[in-house]
Amino acid sequence: MSHQIALNFEDGVTRFVNANPGETVADAAYRQGINIPLDCRDGACGTCKCLAEAGRYELGEDYIEDALSADEAEQGFVLTCQMRALSDCVVRVPASSQVCRAGQGSFQARISAVRQLSDSTIALSIKGEALSQLAFLPGQYVNLGVPGSEQTRAYSFSSLQRDGEVSFLIRNVPGGLMSSFLTGLAKAGDSMTLAGPLGSFYLRDIRRPLLLLAGGTGLAPFTAMLEKIAEQGSEHPLHLIYGVTNDFDLVELERLEDFAARIPQFSFSACVANPESQYPRKGYVTQHIEPAHLNQGDVDVYLCGPPPMVEAVSQFIRGQGIAPANFYYEKFAASAA
Predict the structure, then answer these.
(1) What domain count does the chain have?
(2) Global confidence as pTM
(3) In this predicted model, what pLDDT tens digit does every residue of 69-128 receive, in sequence order?
(4) What is the C-alpha to C-alpha distance for residues 200 and 90, in angstroms, rounded to an integer?
């Protein structure tokens, strides 16, 4: 059985290749038109050294210590000319996609649904036969072309790809180019283009408790991650804190309740920053992070929200004197016309 290898390049582009049983990752990539930097195929030069971030694999014993030390192998570094996948894997390549001749994928699709979830949030779904070939890691984003213009906007997937359909949560920005299209012109059947996937913010193998922190439409990558976790399961506790500015910004709570029913050990809480809110839990996300959530540092933290929130959370965690095992974050800012 072949395995899917996600190659993440340093410029944010991700490409997927299929590795046949016994085939090295370097050979699989080359067979599919992607040139991972390589000076030998004998495990002697170290040129093809990458970091395996997820998945099971074997390296064999044919490489030399100068190319890959025991300490590096323990940390997850691999020589792709020696790496043979035993499951789907994620590999970080320390080179740009251009150097490796692995440009972004480009896809055509059509709008299948546009829903105004609140005054501030739009749910967009697009579908097309081409999208059935789209692969991405939960948490990643694409660049969506704005119909009627030559501009694009970056949005995280809020769902996995199913039957050629994907979804997004989009902030309704007054005067925003995409917002104006979606609220005033868009209709089912309209054509849209997307390029990607992109980004280093994605769900890794779950090896310890997770703390997920979402601000506004920064909830989108987490709903995609939770769909994946619901499929594959998790042995570790997962807690999501979802913060917004106003009551009307709260969306997808029923969906989160559904995840809580489907995923053992998953819990969530939401909070509203506006002191005039009628929602029971008020304040900022940092006010609702409990010591147990940080688990004395044995925790992976995922954070997606506007830059001030990312900075505030980073300062809060440092102030606790705790260093999480891993801290992954993505900042986003709305674009006007």
Answers:
(1) 3
(2) 0.86
(3) 989 999 999 999 999 999 999 999 998 888 788 877 889 999 999 999 999 999 999 999
(4) 11
Residue recorded with tokens 């913060």: 243
Strand partners, 331: 305
Question: Of the residues 172, 198, 224, which one is the last residue of a structural domain?
Answer: 198
The SS3 assignment for 9 reads: strand
Looking at residues 223-236, what average pLDDT do you find? 95
Contact 243, 271 (CB under 8 A): yes
Tell me the two tokens of residue 247.
């009551």
Query: Could you please report the per-residue DSSP string of 23-87?
Result: -BHHHHHHHTT-----S-SSS-S-TTEEEEEES-EE--S-S-TTTS-HHHHHHTEEETTT-EESS
- Cα–Cα distance between 11 and 284 in angstroms, integer? 32
Give me the mean pLDDT over the 227-248 stretch.
Answer: 95
Q: What is the DSSP string of 167-208?
A: EEEEE--TT-HHHHHHHHT--TT-EEEEEEEE-S-------S
- Which range marks the domain in which residue 63 is found? 3-93
- The residue written with tokens 């059935």 in the block is 132
8 and 66 part of one domain: yes
